[in-house]
Amino acid sequence: MTKQESITVIPRADHPISRDDISDNALKVLYRLNKNGYEAYLVGGGVRDLLLGQKPKDFDITTNATPEQIRKLFRNCRLVGRRFRLAHIMFGPEIIEVATFRGHHDQEVDDKNLSSQAQNGMLLRDNIFGSIEEDAIRRDFTVNSLYYNIDDFSVRDYVNGLQDLKDGVIRLIGDPETRYREDPVRMIRAVRFACKLNMRIEPKTAEPIHRLAPLLGEIPSARLFEESLKLLQAGYGYATYKMLNQYHLFEQLFPVIASRFTENGDSPMEKIIEQVLKNTDFRLKNDKRVNPAFLFAAMLWYPVTEHAEKLAQEGGLAYYDAFALAMNDVLDEQCRSIAIPKRITTTMRDIWMLQLRLPRRQGRRANKLMEHPKFRAAFDLLELRANVEHRNELQELALWWSDFQQSNAQKQREMISELGSAPTRRRQRPHRSSQSGNRKPNKS
């Protein structure tokens, strides 16, 4: 290892990164850039994970070639992003992201198409290009600012990231408050990396988070949806949930839920959130699929039922109609913070509505319910509810459905017969009140 002024260079013999562990497509991009006279480095989480002996999820590249120069070299290149201009090199399902070295952001830059910053300090556009040294200090955390040089296979460190990686420290580069104001998402990224890598957030990096957490409200809700999946569906969701609460970030992402937290943290809602996150972590560790619709449906179930009961009592609505309105209201409120796509909210609605149908099993209803494409997810939510509520009738219902699914046709007929005949269903007509007005359920 050699140290030159503010740079530490680790030769190939002194680090564990092998080209065998790097994507073939990433190597193709690195070699072509290098062959055409450009500097080319693997950078960020890919280098960090390789140094830790982990398998990277993706590989990012940085270079001194401009986006237009990159596009000329690769026919399969697409330029994306306005805030940060990037090149995506497409290899079927694999995308190699290539960024040009970022330069210092100057408040006095004349060309606002290159650089733009809001009054609150948020960086709206940053397309000022520079050197690798400038690029290193423009990155967020020291452990993400490590460069693998394809030219000599060395690792370059400009910000003491190697030592922080060794010490297990998540540290922002530069002044934490300034960097958080530039991009408030860095606050939740600090939590995500700390939980993912089992590291601690350095005190100066942690100090402003609680105070600046409301800045997340200025981030587009669609971007926060993508970030929420990285937080909760990456194999360490439970630990992330606890740390998000510790830094008062969870309430910015899920205000509908956080407003219902109890002092002791032992409500059914809080218990089901912890359980569904633990279950999600377990499934991911065992290479099983997870469904964001189920996760969000479980997390928001109790806010929906609580609101439905309030609408039914105060608005004189039949519970079924109140429940439909409650789904709309809760989803509308939640989507102001995190824009859950309609394809997911549609599934969430199915899972929720099936909770009202699962108790009605007489006649052919049970078999019809099992044919519903979202039945299994609805049953899983029923089991979670039974586990956290400890109500006899709910536990008996979950057990009945568990046995029913495992029984043959004859046994299923016997189980249905034992339930007796189906009760006559009378649809209650909603009463008008000043609070309910003319509200009608909709699927918006």
Automatic annotation (TrEMBL):
One of its GO terms (molecular function) is RNA binding. GO terms for biological process: mRNA processing; polyadenylation-dependent RNA catabolic process. The keyword GTP-binding does not apply. Pfam families: PolyA_pol, PolyA_pol_arg_C, PolyA_pol_RNAbd. Residues 316-432 form the Polymerase A arginine-rich C-terminal domain. It is an enzyme of class 2 (transferase). It comes from the Bacteria. Its EC number is 2.7.7.19. Residues 411-444 are annotated as: Disordered. Keywords: ATP-binding, mRNA processing, Nucleotide-binding, Nucleotidyltransferase, RNA-binding, Transcription, Transferase. The active site is at D58, D60, D140. Residues 40-171 form the Poly A polymerase head domain. It catalyses: RNA(n) + ATP = RNA(n)-3'-adenine ribonucleotide + diphosphate. Residues 198-258 form the tRNA nucleotidyltransferase/poly(A) polymerase RNA and SrmB- binding domain. Belongs to the tRNA nucleotidyltransferase/poly(A) polymerase family. HAMAP family: PolyA_pol. Adds poly(A) tail to the 3' end of many RNAs, which usually targets these RNAs for decay. Plays a significant role in the global control of gene expression, through influencing the rate of transcript degradation, and in the general RNA quality control. This is Poly(A) polymerase I.
